[in-house]
Amino acid sequence: MYDMKRLYLPKKGRSKRVSSWDKTGKNDDYITINPYETINIAEIKGPGIINHIWMTIATDEKYSFRKVLIRAYW
Q1: How does DSSP assign 34-60, residue by residue?
Q2: Which of 2, 8, 44, 53 keeps 20 to 30 A from 68, CA to CA?
Q3: Phi, psi angles (nearest 5°) of residue 64
Q4: CB-CB neighbours of 1 under 10 Å
């Protein structure tokens, strides 16, 4: 049985980040996704933890987030 008393302790591993950051040094940090299009943002192999997901939508449509679908598979 797993010892829950040790859950908070740091584990061996390494930190990684997946981002759309602009490698040219400009401010073009975005991915354009057209309607009905699917984009693979990250393929991560092995065990891990997703600590943070950040996204913005460039639209003035009032209910735009109701039209967004995020799928995660593991």
Answers
A1: -TT---------SS-------------
A2: 44
A3: -65, -35
A4: 3
**pLDDT above 60: residue 1:** no
What is the Cα gyration radius of the chain? 17
Nearest in space to 51 (alpha carbons), one of 23, 24, 13, 2 = 13
Residue listed under structure tokens 């981002």: 19
* Residues sharing a CB contact under 8 Å with residue 50, sequence separation 6 or more, in sequence order: 72
Q: What's the rounded Cα separation, in Å, for the pair 33 and 18?
A: 17
Eight-state DSSP code of residue 64: G
Which pTM does this prediction carry?
0.54
The C-alpha atoms of residue 21 and residue 48 are separated, in whole angstroms, by 21
